[in-house]
Amino acid sequence: MTSSVFRFVLSVLCVLSMFSSRANAGDFIEWQSANIQLLRGWDYEVGKTQRTLVTLEYANKWRYGDLFIFVDGTRFDGGEKTAFGEISPRFSFGKILGQDLSYGIVKDVLLATTFEKGESKTEAFLIGLGLDLDLPGFTFFNANIYRRHDPQINDDIWQLTLAWKYPFRLFNTSFVTEGFSDIAGNAGPTYHSNQFIVPRLLVNTGSLLHGEDNQLWVGVEYSYWRNKFGIEGVDESQPQVQMKWIF
After folding, report:
1. Binning pLDDT at 50, 70 and 90, where does residue 171 land?
2. Is the pLDDT of residue 42 over 90?
3. How far is residue 41's CA from residue 49's CA, in Å, rounded to a whole number?
4. 198 forms bridges with which residues in the sheet?
5. Looking at the predicted structure, is the pLDDT value of residue 21 above 80?
6. What DSSP string runs through 114-177?
7. DSSP label at 234?
8. Which of 137, 141, 187, 239 could anchor a disulfide with 155, C-beta 3.0 to 4.6 Å?
9. pTM (predicted TM-score)
């Protein structure tokens, strides 16, 4: 892990600590949640074909918006390691202005930002418009349209990011389908439009073993990436087994 990624991970941990310490400060934080995930996958198209991933996620909704953070640590079979993370704060125009901006299925309109950091010079800055959508049965469904600046790509590009969570019950057991999708545009002849979709299907082990317990979930994550990393013709279709511990 390079020193720059280490500093990024350290800053993430500091942010987590800050928000946790302020969780009891009145109604500044409405809710917060953190989890750690373990994934195992095979037959990847770029890099080593087999790898294990550990992901730390944190999310909250606070007085003027929301925050999502994740850090991926990847260990390739053979011992090589790498890291990647994102910090995505969003700021609610409705809450800041004290106005109800809901209309139809739109619950809120937000300023959406993201900073990505990986190994070496891998980083990107995104800014755009976010929408919180009110769709039946979904815990949340977010749509963010960004202008993406990546110093390694000649031109800025647009990116649409969707994220969702849909819980349901079947045979008296709790399930959830959740995930995200990134759709990015072209940037000249060396970076091609690409589509990345990652749905998950998880089952609550607590509901299987000893009644309701929302901590440990297991299941499968499916990753499909067309023109991975903007490389034309590199398409990845990748199922992964997943374990998710919410704390």
Report:
1. confident
2. no
3. 8
4. 180
5. no
6. EEEE-STT-EEEEEEEEEEE--TT-SEEEEEEEEEE-TTSSS-EEEEEEEEEEEEEETTEEEEE
7. -
8. 187
9. 0.87
pLDDT in tens, 47-89: 667 889 899 999 999 999 999 999 999 888 877 888 999 999 9
Q: Identify residue 111 by its one-letter amino acid code.
A: L
For tokens 């969570």, the residue is 165
Structural domain 3-246, CATH architecture = Beta Barrel (2.40)
pLDDT band at 216 (very low <50, low <70, confident <90, very high): very high
Q: Which residues contact 220 (CB under 8 A, 6 or more apart)?
A: 200, 201, 239, 240, 241, 242
Please give the Cα distance from 212 to 206 (Å, whole number).
5
* Residues 90/115, Cβ–Cβ less than 8 Å: no
CA dihedral 184, 188, 189, 195 (to 10 degrees): 0
- Going from N- to C-terminal start, the domains of the chain cover 3-246
Residue among 212, 184, 211, 199 at smallest CA distance from 242: 199
